[in-house]
Amino acid sequence: MGISPDNLELNQIFGYLKKLEARIERLEAYFNLGPAGEAPEIELPPPSSAKAEESEDRLELQIGENWLAKTGIVVLAAGIAFLLALPYKNLPPILPGILGYCLAAGIFALSHYWRKSFSLISRYLHGGGMALMYFATLRLYFFSAEKAVTKRSLEIVLLMIIVFANFYISGRRKSIYLAGLSLAMGYTTAIVSDQAYFLFAAAALMSALVVYFKLKYGWQRLLIFGIVLTYFTHFLWFLNNPFLGKNLQFVSSPETNLLFVLLYVLIFAAGNFVRDKSLPESNMVIITTFLNCAGGYSLFLLISVIKFPEHIAMYHLLAALVFLGLAIAYWSREKSKFSTFFYAMTGYSALSVAIIARFSEPESLVWLGWQSLLVISTAVWFRSKFIIVANFIIYLLIFLVYLILAKTVTPISLSFGVVALMSARILNWQKDRLELKTELMRNAYLAAAFFMFPYTLYHIVPAGYVSLSWLGVGIIYYILSRVLNNRKYRWMALFTLLLTVGHVLLIDATRLDPALRVISFLVVGAALVVISIFYSRSRLKSP
Fold first, then answer.
1. CA diameter of the chain
2. Distance of alpha carbon 399 from alpha carbon 415, whole angstroms
3. DSSP assignment, residue 336?
4. b/e map of 384-420 (b: 16 or more CB within 10 Å)?
5. What is d(CA 476, CA 457) in angstroms, rounded to the nearest whole number?
6. How far apart are CA 86 and CA 289, in angstroms?
């Protein structure tokens, strides 16, 4: 009896199923899996907890290995420094210095021995040894009545040798921390020298070294550190070096110290200026530029106002040329936005101080108003919307201060309106260069002019002719609209005429003499009719 084809296919299917089951059992046995239907329970820690534990371990290692080493070496160096600073009676005055050198040599030897096994601690020890060697040299002249080195000039030479040696080592090791330590020692040497010109020269030299390291290794943070130390050191000199136990007072000699402040500004400006053009104007570049402007000019302003008031105009005019020159240089080289803005605004501020010092009030405020035209012109060249906005705010403040301080309004006040009109015209002329997307700033200047002309004429023109003077302003606006083909001046003309009509009806009708009242009504009425005829002709000509 034969097997039917259907039974044969069924047996083949069962055979395949048995083979598949056998393979699955072998896979389960290999991966140690339970029977089918029993999912293995695998306990995995939550990813967030694992990351948190890893981060905690990393923080603990950072504190234990890095910060404890730094803190320990600083505390150790400070303890040794206090030990060396103690007075040692009946002992040779050179002994504390020799002890300091020996301890520094031991620290250097330990740093060299650990350079491979404990590289991080080795670097910190090297910095501690540098600081200890500097303090040991400082101990040869200071901190004791009996001096191992009797001449301060020789002491300063020894200290500077150590400073430059440390700068050389920091450059060889490419260590920003050692360079920062060397910088601090250099400025300390400048302070303890107690010699004005040496302090200025040393500060300028330290500034140049900072710029060199920044350009060579890209140490932007060292540049910030150098800016702070430079201006702080000069400020300490201005306070008569109180850290040396001298009385706190303002120092006035030599007057040329102001020129050194401007020299520092130029040196630090070169640190960002000479960088590769392809590098963007990063946040660190912006911060260093701001600190250079704020620190340099604040110190310059403080010293000049307190000690040299008779020469303020001259010095601040020079400062304005320096800062504006830097703004022009930055814009010409890399089309910088922020550096150009900071240097330009600082230059404008210095020029404002020079004007205030040169002219008496309120005439100085009028000159400040005209200065805004210079600001507008340079801002157009710099394509700086920031300067445009800042200048308008300052312009309004100047005008408000003028209104408060001026006892009587004079024809000179009309210059504020003229400046506003010219500023608006410049902005309209160069709107494409400035990429001004709105009419806000131009309208703001026009609104200022619209207010200033009637206000000034109201105070300087006899009461009977105020309406006529306002009518003249409206006609001038209308002429400007025709010549310049600008609708804004037509609107200003209309509003001025409406203001004139209001003055005629409310003031002239009740307060003027009959003859002047008649003249005022006739002239204003005729002018309104004539202008209306012009508008009618324009409407008929339009398609």
1. 146
2. 11
3. -
4. bbbbbebbbebbbebbeebeeebeebeebbbbbbebb
5. 14
6. 43
Structure tokens at 122: 């080795």
Look up residue 431 and give its amino acid.
K
Give 379-444 as a DSSP string. HHHHT-HHHHHHHHHHHHHHHHHHHHH-SS--GGGHHHHHHHHHHHHHHHHTHHHHT--SSHHHHH
Strand, coil or helix: 233: helix
C-beta separation of 252 from 222 below 8 A: no
pTM of the model: 0.70
365 within 8 A of 401, measured Cβ to Cβ: yes
- Reading the chain (543 residues) residue by residue, the pLDDT tens digits are 455 555 556 666 766 677 777 777 766 665 655 555 454 554 545 555 555 555 555 555 555 445 555 566 566 556 666 656 666 666 676 777 777 778 878 877 877 777 676 666 677 777 777 888 888 888 887 777 677 777 888 989 999 999 998 888 888 888 888 898 899 999 999 998 888 999 999 999 999 999 999 988 888 899 999 999 999 999 999 998 888 878 888 887 888 899 999 999 999 999 888 877 667 778 888 899 999 999 999 999 999 999 888 888 899 999 999 999 999 898 888 888 888 889 988 998 898 888 888 877 766 777 777 777 777 777 777 777 777 777 778 777 877 777 777 666 767 777 777 777 777 777 777 666 655 555 777 777 788 888 888 888 887 888 777 778 888 888 888 888 888 777 788 788 888 888 877 777 777 666 666 666 667 667 767 776 766 666 566 554 544
Residue found by looking up tokens 């209001």 in the block: 502
- Non-local CB neighbours of 504 within 8 Å, separated by 6+ positions: 467, 520, 521, 524
CA separation, residue 467 to residues 418, 477, 480 (Å): 20, 15, 20
Q: How many CA atoms lie within 13 A of 348 on its CB side?
A: 27
28 alpha carbon, distance to own chain's centre: 69
| Other Cβ atoms within 10 Å of 529 Cβ, number | 9
- Separation of alpha carbons 375 and 423, rounded Å: 10
Angle at 207 between CA 206 and CA 213, to 5 degrees: 90
Q: How far is CA 282 from the centre of its chain?
A: 12
The span from the CA of 469 to the CA of 414, in Å, is 13
* Distance, CA of 43 to CA of 286 (rounded, Å): 52
Distance CA 126, CA 104 (A): 9
Write the DSSP assignment of 81-141 as a string of letters: HHHHHS--TTS-TTHHHHHHHHHHHHHHHHHHHTTTTTHHHHHHHHHHHHHHHHHHHHTTT
The H or E element spanning position 542 is none
